Amino acid sequence: MKRVMVVGAGAGGLAALRSLSRQADRLSFVAYEQSDRVGGTWIHNDPHKPTSMYDNLRWAYVYLLSILCVLYSAVVP
Predict the structure, then answer these.
(1) How many CB atoms lie within 10 A of CB 26?
(2) What value does the CA radius of gyration of the chain take, rounded to a whole number of Å?
(3) How far apart, in whole angstroms, are the C-alpha atoms of residue 73 and residue 67?
(4) What are the angstrom distances between the C-alpha of 60 and each of 9, 55, 72, 73?
(5) Which tens digits make up the pLDDT trace of 4-42?
């Protein structure tokens, strides 16, 4: 019997566990999550934000938007 380990119980980990559960007769699997809840980046504790999903991407959005503005101003007189 093959053994599988899933690290994280976010969206990807839960999807993997669901898929693995369909093969439980051929596989042995276990999941590890560092927090006490499942949900990954959708779990947050700030009541003033709807989600913590895009906290790490916010800087990239501002950076790319500033580059697009510079490029647009160089093309359009």
Answers:
(1) 9
(2) 20
(3) 10
(4) 26, 10, 18, 20
(5) 999 988 888 999 999 999 999 999 999 998 888 887 766
pLDDT tens digits, 58-77: 666 677 777 777 776 766 65
Secondary structure (H, E, C), the chain: CEEEEEECCCHHHHHHHHHHHCCCCCEEEEEECCCCCCCHHHCCCCCCCCCCCCHHHHHHHHHHHHHHHHHHHHHCC
Nearest to 43 by CA among 55, 32, 58, 60: 55
**Two structure tokens written together for 17:** 């566990």
The residue written with tokens 């160089």 in the block is 74
